[in-house]
Design brief:
Layout: E1 3-6, E2 10-16, E3 33-37, H1 39-52, E4 70-77, H2 80-91, E5 99-102, E6 107-113, E7 119-124, E8 146-149, H3 155-167, E9 171-175, H4 184-187, E10 192-196, H5 197-204, H6 211-221, E11 227-231, E12 237-241, E13 244-248, H7 261-274, H8 279-293, H9 306-314
Parallel strand pairs: 1-4, 1-8, 2-6, 4-5, 8-9, 9-10, 10-11
Antiparallel strand pairs: 2-3, 6-7, 11-12, 12-13
């Protein structure tokens, strides 16, 4: 096992609107669509596709017959959404033995996407918030080289997962989303902290609205965490770590839906770290994956395969 992802698994309900509503305003949107989502599941699929290289060419074929080296730890409901989501992860070659159906509703995300491809998201956590620290065991982290975490499950569960990942000898990647205060007892187990502009603002009180400002904010955050990456949307990403610091410009694309872009970035970054690549190489791979994800609709459906990312890098 190479990459262990502990986090949320949601069904996304997506509606398209001309613009986002103002407080108290009602707008008419498109027919709604259902997409497989949840930051944890999205990042697991993103990593699996980076390890799996190319999409299956045979109808109904699994992504990688022998598995991708990704394990997903989470909770879904004993309902139709839960069945669909768990089976979808299995089709990607992801080990779901620790993704357990329980007597609670499956998590749901309500997503509105405007004409510019920007989204707003409200999450009903459901079964995700029933994943408790005592549900995690060291056996589930054996052999992990990278552990990937987010904040759509209880914070004490995230901390316990980070601790078990560190004990297993893995590098712990925390995508601190959605934004909230990070306790020191969690930060001490984190090797790589990844945040976007709004999440960096929540942690520091400073909005990194340019690469130069983002580097200064990342340097502040790196006082507690060895490595910090700040994603900047159309301005790319910056990184600060033991290897130094730098800015990776964005790869220009025609954005359709940014819903899965951040998760594509994390999955690609985690895969590159697992493969022993340098931090600048990992951030570059993440930026390409995120850009390609923004050109397609949906969360998991938009996540690119490794061959697609490599082709864009070469071009």
């Amino acid at each position: 096992m190479s990459i262990v992802v502990v986090g949320s698994i949601n069904m996304d309900l997506v509606v398209r609107v001309k613009r986002h509503p103002l407080p108290g305003e009602t707008l008419l949107g498109s027919d709604y669509e259902t997409h497989h989502g949840g930051k944890g599941a999205n990042q697991a699929v993103a990593a699996a596709r980076m390890l799996g290289r190319a999409a299956p060419t045979t109808k109904g074929a699994s992504a990688v017959a022998q598995g991708t080296g990704v394990r997903m730890i989470g909770r879904v409901g004993q309902d139709e959404f839960g069945n669909q989501l768990r089976n979808a992860l299995k089709r990607e070659g992801i080990n779901v033995n620790a993704t357990i159906p329980i007597a609670a509703p499956t998590g749901v995300a309500f997503i509105a996407v405007n004409e510019e491809g920007q989204n707003t998201i409200i999450v009903s956590p459901g079964a995700n918030h029933r994943l408790r620290p005592e549900n995690l065991s060291s056996a589930e982290f054996e052999g992990a080289r990278v552990v990937v975490l987010q904040l759509e499950i209880p914070l004490d569960t995230v901390r316990r997962a980070a601790e078990l990942g560190r004990q297993a000898g893995a590098r712990v990647v925390l995508n601190a989303a959605p934004a909230q205060k990070l306790p020191d007892k969690l930060i001490e187990y984190v090797d790589i902290l990844v945040v976007n502009e709004s999440e960096a603002l929540g942690l520091t009180g400073v909005l990194p609205d340019s690469p130069e400002m983002a580097l200064e904010v990342a340097k502040v955050l790196s006082e507690k965490t060895p490595t910090v990456v700040i994603t900047l949307g159309e301005q790319g990403a910056v990184w600060v770590g033991p290897e130094g610091w730098g800015h990776q410009p964005v790869f220009k694309v025609e954005a359709v839906d940014s819903t899965g872009a951040g998760d594509a970035f994390i999955g690609a970054l985690a895969t590159a770290i697992c493969e022993g690549k340098t931090l600048p190489q990992a951030v570059r791979l993440g930026c390409v994956a995120g850009a390609l994800a923004a050109t397609r609709v949906g969360a998991q459906a938009s996540l690119p395969w490794r061959d697609d990312v490599n082709a864009r890098l070469e071009s």
